[in-house]
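Below is a filled-in request sheet from our internal design queue. Each sheet records the structural input a requester submitted and the sequence that came back. We keep these sheets so that new team members can see what a complete request looks like end to end.

REQUESTER: design group, bay 2
PRIORITY: normal
MODE: inverse folding
CHAIN LENGTH: 105
BACKBONE (tokenized):
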């Protein structure tokens, strides 16, 4: 499974990790996500609860290395009755990546 294979390599300490993010929280979110995937693959019901720290840590430690050019600092906030997400987008970097050979299409 991709997430489990990447876990050790992706969770290397990062200098720019905000203090409220933790590799352990990212690992917890990854375990819960794998549980949901396994249940879905076997047509079984499953319910998992994710904390804001787990989701943001997962975004930072697991997904950020694979963000497309120009995307950075994605985060979510759990608000009453909704989820609010933000990210920094550098449109110049995204545009340049689209024009580069092998870039986004």
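RETURNED SEQUENCE:
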């Amino acid at each position: 499974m991709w997430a489990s294979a990447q876990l050790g390599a992706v969770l290397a300490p990062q200098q720019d990790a905000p203090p409220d993010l933790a590799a352990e929280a990212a690992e917890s979110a990854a375990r819960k996500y794998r549980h949901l995937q396994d249940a879905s693959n076997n047509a079984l019901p499953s319910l998992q609860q994710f904390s804001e720290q787990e989701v943001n840590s997962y975004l930072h430690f697991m997904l950020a290395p694979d963000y497309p050019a120009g995307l950075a600092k994605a985060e979510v906030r759990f608000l009453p009755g909704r989820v609010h997400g933000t990210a920094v987008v550098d449109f110049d970097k995204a545009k340049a990546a689209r024009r580069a050979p092998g870039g986004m299409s």
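SHEET NOTES:
- The first strand starts at residue 71 and ends at 79.
- The chain has a mean pLDDT of 85.
FILED BY: M.R.
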